[in-house]
Write a structure and sequence with these properties.
Elements: H1 13-30, H2 44-47, H3 52-70, E1 90-93, H4 94-111, H5 113-118, E2 131-134
Parallel strand pairs: 1-2
């Protein structure tokens, strides 16, 4: 499961669709509708906020907004909670954003070189709108290896 801390604009088509599906799975886990992935480390950050399902709803809504921008149709009826105007922002460290940026760039270079080229000049990526950047190292739950 990869729930990107990066802004969804950076994802290629495959990444955006996979992130949507995986976040729908995360929503099911947090709602108690599935037993799989209960201990998945990326869910820690959603469980740390007062209303995890509201935060997941805000995350999914931003993915759907990006899909709309690209002319895709993500089924918003699958988002289980209404999105509030001011969702609780989840902290994400600069180190985590940079690790994910390295990981995504490597994926894009091999899978979608045209998308990789579009973002080549970006040194510091923006976080997904549900996250707020804070100083710090890579998150303890991160398992992606740094690029060589």
């Amino acid at each position: 499961m990869r729930i990107w801390s990066l802004h969804p604009e950076y994802l290629d088509r495959q990444g955006l669709i996979a992130c949507w599906r995986e976040t729908l799975l995360a929503q099911a886990v947090l709602a108690g509708r599935t037993r799989g992935y209960l201990g998945h480390p990326q869910l820690e950050r959603f469980r740390a906020v007062p209303e995890p399902l509201s935060s997941v709803a805000a995350y999914l809504s931003s993915l759907a907004d990006e899909a709309d921008t690209r002319g895709y149709r993500f089924d918003r009826s699958r988002i289980e909670r209404p999105v509030t105007e001011d969702p609780v922002l989840i902290p994400v460290t600069t180190g985590q954003l940079m690790r994910e940026w390295e990981h995504l760039r490597a994926k894009l270079t091999s899978r979608s070189p045209e998308v990789a080229a579009r973002w080549k000049a970006v040194d510091v990526p923006r976080p997904h709108p549900i996250f707020t950047e804070v100083p710090g190292a890579v998150a303890s739950w991160e398992h992606a290896l740094p690029s060589a």
